[in-house]
Amino acid sequence: MLTFLSFVFGLALLIGVHEYGHYRMAVVCGVRVLRFSIGMGPVLWGWTSSVTRTEYVLCAIPLGGYVRMLDERDNPVDPCERSRAFNTQSLWRRSLIVGAGPMANFVLAVALYAGVFWSGVQEVSPVLASPSAGSMAQVAGLKGGERVRTLQVPGQEPVAIDSLEALRWHLTRHAFQSEDVEMDVYVAADSIRQIPVLLPLSQLDLATGVTDPLTLIGITGPWTEPVLGELVETGAAHRAQLKKGDLIVKVDDIAVVDGQQLRGLIRSGVTSAGTGVTQHWLIRRHAALLTLDVTPNPERVDGRWIGRIGAYVGTQPARVLVRKDPLDAVGAAVEKTVDVSLLSLNMLGRMLTGQASLRNLSGPLTIADYAGKSASIGITPYLLFLALISVSLGVLNLLPLPVLDGGHLMYYLYEGLTGQPVSETWQDRFQRGGVVILMGMMFIALFNDVARLLG
After folding, report:
1. Are 422 and 408 in contact (CB under 8 A)?
2. What is the pTM of this model?
3. Of the listed 19, 165, 179, 230, which one is catalytic?
4. Which domains are seen in the chain, by residue range?
């Protein structure tokens, strides 16, 4: 129910803001609006203004909306109202009305980001977990426990990193832009000496079907202390006489750096045939060092055997409060909106040229899933999710497809350059082609949604 409500509310808000942008600009330009609709299909609720004679409706299918304006191309127009018809407006006014919808989504995103940055966000501290084996981060010399201070593209100014989320965002953006980055880090035992770490992100192959470049980089989570939490009485940890609060120092001869590495060692504690392998654990309990034999229980997951010990592994990651003053919050919000927009366009371009996988396209099922998950965490993650989707909606509508706002703007660009509008015959052909392309994108997105839900 939370997923459904958060999804419907989010769509209604984003679509409503988008259509309100068209509506408000039409009113400012003197165009009469006949209907303002949130949703498509059968009308659930409606009201007509006695002053403007505009009909406001809420429809059953929340996957779109529209603003219907007076237009001679649709129906005959009374001569006394001809000056208020959309098609009789100047080129720049029509362009403003069409472009106001996506712009409203960008403005909403800036407002949401600014509100979150101003109120403050509890973020995970930028202390790195142990990198995955063979990853770029491991090859670069990272071991886990390092705190990232700055990140920079060679030749550019360094950017201060105040949270793990900020680090993940910058790494993702630079990965899609094929830009190498250098990080200044220090380890927990030495908070003064900085160590430069170069990550050659330009060497990543993003066309392999991997939807998250951070998986290839090897920076996938925060550092957590390798301490055991609650134990299940029937689990392998309880059988081995482990206790809550035990600090794991070594597994066999491998020094344990953090909780993520420990979980990986536990998962690998079974054979390919599904038999648990006894591991020798060196633990610290209070001031004493103990050695215990632990045999993980085999469990079949996604077609392969992994080990489980029946215990919560790792502590909660350290958090920091990231807060900005009002002016800085607005500036950071604008910068974030621009960055997300450019990243979205870069990603679309890479998918079109085969440099990135089409699996990165997401549809309504994935959006609904993330809406529910973000809302279940709290209001701040949900607002950040809405800001991200609002930017995506604005970018999508500016694509030069005839059925979208960007397509209409392309018509107006042609009209401005040639002095004459695109003929109705060609508009009809472009519309048909645009519908085919859009339906194809929707099919791929839905296919990806179903594939993700089915694992």
Report:
1. no
2. 0.77
3. 19
4. 92-119+325-455 (no CATH), 228-313 (2.30.42.10)
